[in-house]
Amino acid sequence: MDTDHQLIFIDFEFTMPEGKAQSKGFYPEIIEVGIVIVKKQEIIRTYSSFVKPSNNPLLTSRCKSFLNISQDQVDLGITFVEFISYLNELNQYGNNTVVTWGNMDMKVLKLNCEKQHLPFPLTGKMRDLSLEYKKFFGDRNQTGLWKAVEEYGKKGVGSHHRALDDALTTYNIFKLVENDKRYLSRPVPTTIGDRIDLSKVMSKFAT
């Protein structure tokens, strides 16, 4: 395996409209990021930050309540441009595979980049772990992150809907699924009955 290869587990939290119907001009903006970087099955660093939204800088009451995030926290966060600069730096450290739970994180990142006329910063392979989980277990519907980890008899890290905690939880369930894949891909050892036609042996002794 490429020694420079790194897995980047990413989770974002976004702005939310006040009601279910989005107001004119609204689009989800990244306001919290959590990143876990893994090389050779070891976490080499983590990153966590709030990000100041620019299109709708004031968080709605629904957003603050659902995510348990305050206006002051995002006001003191980095700018989206600064965050993109950080993501660009990740490309310098190795060959990347970006792992997320669901496809919404990358969709919103691409949308935010387009709105601010910035090139998409991440290179390498993209993996939607929730889709892999669904296919692996034959589920009809995609499972939520914390429900999936609970189905393994485990608990999520920290608090749900905190970006770094969810990124760490994604890494933990990634390890569980990968271990199951390796276990199921191992060839089943043959028994002596598989290697010898016992009916022929018994007929020989019967004569």
TrEMBL record:
Keywords noted in UniProt: Exonuclease, Hydrolase, Nuclease
Gene Ontology molecular function: 3'-5'-RNA exonuclease activity; nucleic acid binding
Signal peptide start and end residues: none
Presence of the UniProt keyword Endoplasmic reticulum in the record: no
Residue ranges constituting the Exonuclease domain according to the UniProt record: 6-183
Keyword Nucleus among record annotations: no
Alphabetical list of PANTHER family matching this protein: 3'-5' EXONUCLEASE ERI1-RELATED, 3'-5' EXORIBONUCLEASE 1-RELATED
Protein name: 3'-5' exonuclease KapD
